[in-house]
Amino acid sequence: MADATFDDPDVTTFARLDGLGLQVTGQFVEPDRAVLACRVADPDRTCRRCGAVGRPRDTVLRRLAHEPLGWRPTLLLVTVVRYRCQGCSAVWRQDTSRAAQPRARLSRGALAWALTALVCQHLTVARVAEALGVSWNTANAAVLAEGQRRLIADPARFDGVQVIGVDEHVWRHTRRGDRFVTVIIDLTAVRNRTGPARLLDMIDGRSKQAFAQWLSQRPKSWRDRVEVVAMDGFTGFKTATTAELPQATAVMDPFHVVRLAAHALDACRRRVQQDLLGRRGRSGDPLYSTRRALLTGADLLTDRQRTRLRAVFATDTHLQVEATWCVYQDLIRGYRDPNRRRGRDRIRALIGSISRAVPRSLSEIATLGRTLQQRSADVLAYFDRPGTSNGPTEAINGRLEHLRGSALGFRNLANYIARSLLETGGFRPSIHRRLR
After folding, report:
1. pTM > 0.85: yes or no
2. What is the rounded average pLDDT of the residues 275-301?
3. Which site among 39, 61, 166, 350 is 20 to 30 Å from 395 CA-CA?
4. What is the C-alpha to C-alpha distance for residues 262 and 325, in angstroms, rounded to an integer?
């Protein structure tokens, strides 16, 4: 800084209006906002109709919200000259397309600032509208349209996709209309260890038809490059993948496989609790007090949790819970085995053991065994396709839950999809380059 050469103060450059074709002619600072009087730098005297030179007729004033200076809303009062042609008497006004889109209330600088705030700083639309000094509807419509035009509609964002994850997501916790959407995640960077997962798209509804239709709308060259599809146990996703991506390998990822076993263990615990005590679990009930310890990996248990589990398993009436817990832990140990071949063999042996000759009393294990046996090829495919877990998909679902909470919910699905793509679409690293 000691060797820096300072220029004379220039509000036009400071407010970044030179790139919008405007020059500041005056300023007025109020406690709650700053007002900059501007004029269009280009005289624009040439007639659009005959090419003759026009003469100034009068002026009109255009109001534009600009990016905030010091978090104070900034308003541009742009004086636009209207000309009359001396040859054909045509009337036109100075071109302000560099400063803003036709009939827009936000300058292009304000749009770029708002989009960056939404994508990079994760601000809400309400906070963006407050900083720009415009209404929520104005900010929301303008920013989503700009994000759609510059980011979401860019066909290049689908380039390089080789591994995708598909899962369902609850976008509205009400009974009005369809509450579910299908999310498609790009897991290629996770598989290659070059970056995080990103949201590719979101589809209304959760069904085989919805996912198959989305895949069919992609170019054949894109579909041919997809190598792996990570999914949960929903057969609709599997059927759609087989029909539209015959060359891709379907992988039922560890996250959902372990979750199936966890559901079986929890269902067994509740059933035994109901059979023994005739009620749901209450504080002080042995099984209820160990509900979290039961779902914890054996190598992560604390001494207190181990003591509680030993006390529970010492009772003969809890043998069914212990048997289901052992299956759950064996599944976890298979996935955590550092030797992938050995882990695959352990999972294969476990699926074989619980898919036949299971006592009728262990109904949850029998159901789990049938499910894993039907999808055994997809379950075991994970060990040949490292880095294809749907865990990052669930992580993005968590970010979408946070987005919905910060926005206090969404009523419009189109807005929710657009906001979700801007939030988790992976635009942050390249947004500054894209918005130049």
Report:
1. no
2. 90
3. 350
4. 9
